[in-house]
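Supplementary Methods, section 5.1.

A reviewer requested that the exact input to the structure prediction be made available. We therefore reproduce it here, unchanged from the version used in the analyses.
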Amino acid sequence: MRNKSIFLFVIKQTALLVLCLVFIIPLHAQQNLPVTNKDTVVFPLVYYVHPLIGSDRCRNFFMTAAARPFGMVKLAPDTEIFGYYHTGYQNAQTSVYGFSHIHEFQMGGLAVMPVTGEVNTVPGPERWKSGFNPADQTVTPGYQKLHLDRYDIDVELTATKRVGFHRYTFRKADNAAVLIPFCGIWNEARMFNCDVKRIGKDTIEGSLLIADARLSTDSRLVVPTEVFFVITTNRAFQSLDGWRTQEMQRNISGIKGENSGLVLNFGKVASGTTVQMKVAISYCSVQQALLNLSTEAPNWDFEAVRKSAWEEWNTALSRIEVEGTVERKVKFYTDLWHSLLGIGVFSDVNGQYPVYRKGKFSEINNDINGLFPIYDTGMYTEIKSVPLDDKGQPLFNMHVSDAFWWSQQNLNSIWGLAYPDVLREFCNSWLRFYDDTGILPLGASVGRVDFIMSGQQAAPLFGRAIQMNLPGVDAEHAFEAMNATMRNGTNRWMGDVDIYTRFGGWMPNDLGERKWSVTRPVENGWCDWVLSQAARKLGHSSEADFYNQRSLGWKNLYNPESGWLQPRDSSGKWSAPFTPMVYNSIGFLESYSAVLTWFPAQYDLNGTMQVMGGREKTIQRLNQQFEQASGQHYRYGWLQYENNTGFFHAHLFQMLGDPVKTQHWIREVYTANYSAITPSSTAYATNDEDQGQMGSLSALISMGLFQMKGGCELNPEYQLTSPMFNRIVIHLQPDCYKAKEFVITAGTDPEKKEYIESVKLNGNPLKNLIITQDQISKGAELNFELSTQPNLKWVIAPKENDKNQLFR
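The structure derived from this sequence is encoded token-by-token as follows.
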């Protein structure tokens, strides 16, 4: 049945493209949208985005079509709400529990569910869920429409950045209502402690708390987040009912406490009746939610909001234009959509945002499941504001995130190239976190530093900005923040910095927290190297020397007998028994030694070659891992292209002097993990897509661009592989680049040719498959000649004794 569904999905999507070309484009032309250029039809890029790609099994924030770029509101149907990693919209499921507005890392909820007939909320979402047909819906950036079979209701969704906009069409005459649960597990979060009241005939307003659904020692959202909201309809509701635990309450003016929800009753409606609803949120106050509502969605023109979302997405996607097959364009623009979708804002339209001070959460035992977190009496919230321009408008937004764990080769790279304004906004958002808390976040929850993953992932974000001289980012302030964070030990998950420094850049597994005694120093070492480069750029020579030396401490964890990075204690004894193929074993975070051993090669390639016995042995060993991994789709073992620590391995061959192997293996990796255009799980490896990271990586691979060092080195470089498009035009932003565009051409059928025969830069043959940031800035056109056969002239011949043959 699933194979049949996938086949029907492909047929339907192909038909939609034809339909768009024949019918919809003329419609948009009538709306004065630019769609023609002389005799050539220009296909609106937003139509190439298929949000359902990869949605069979994904995270809660992955498929949120009714949203703006980096929206606070990400409005979507939730087809699975119980669990953790695979919640939210799952295309393989055929029931909808509700339509929630918050889909972020460990944050979820504020859901609504339109219903007809008799309302019964006990025992919760399982009672009121409705079937729907995933193959019979419309899903595009900024808009989603589906039909609730049980209630015979058409549901349409769109959004501004901070307001969700609903339109319900009731297809049968019956009692109509909207259920709003304020309690229980919803996706990655738990809702509780609501305080909601009715305001007038058509509005409710209030607040609720959300926290990590797991509420365990592994919880990273360590205090609850307060969400404020205003919900208003264009039709007065006849009555307001509610529930507490298993008891219904009729004709109430509001509800407060645990295990609660509300019912907006509209009475009996005629067939074809339409009800519209707007849901505005804020993390500061109800008044701020009202401000967001009145500023972004002041009227009831659903179509205007939908069109505005369409135009915003189309404009954003148009920064990069590609020409090629429909399949590759569909995947590319869906990739690009993901890179601009996640990591939502949490500041309001006037720049206000909360900072949580003091306090932690306690446990009380009054939920049917037995556990709820609440504020300690010492907790309070301070409302702050980002800087404003001379017109009183915010200079940037504050953002949450699922960490920036190894985003240097994906998000940081594509943002720095085509969206430097986005890179600037995130840098300034992170600097506000530093100013507010005294430390840079690993991940950023609303108003607080989030303890997630390891290393210091703001470092490569800032490193990229510093090395490209990004206007609007205070480089010295950024270095101060990185330096302060990497010098002290207050960061729980980077942790034990004093031990790391005392041992010269490594950590023994019998001191401090032993769980990640390999991952932490190896990832800290990368961040140290980034700081050394930034310090060198800014003229801080002593800091540059310190961080460069500390970044080399990883060698103390390389066991020459096993040939792998391996935990050891403070006396030098290696941990035993040991195998490089155990996931999350002691010493490693979401990785294997087989994968992490190569991690230092990103910045210390010479050191890696030296411990492995020279360049040729290093290449042979890496190639053997790729051959072993080919039967595993290059994930979950010898390689790890399904997770952030394993995105770079194929490009190491090029750094080692054998770009032909890079050209071959990266195409194999792409085909196995990122090429699909159906809901199947091969679209983004295992679809733990991390809010745009795999989408950005996939887009960069298909353009033939990669930054091994994340643009964090002096005079940043891009490594070149074979593009999959005939022509690529990257429109460069004038405040960051001297040239207007960066053009790449690759001849005919590039998707079928994985090898580079030759390449010219501005008409001159390239000797190395590298282009620098400076060359792009001045104006660059790359012309590739591709082939189905490898050109071995690119391979550097080995020396007789290559152990000390050094490379960039």
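The chain has 19 helices and 39 strands. These observations are discussed further in the main text.
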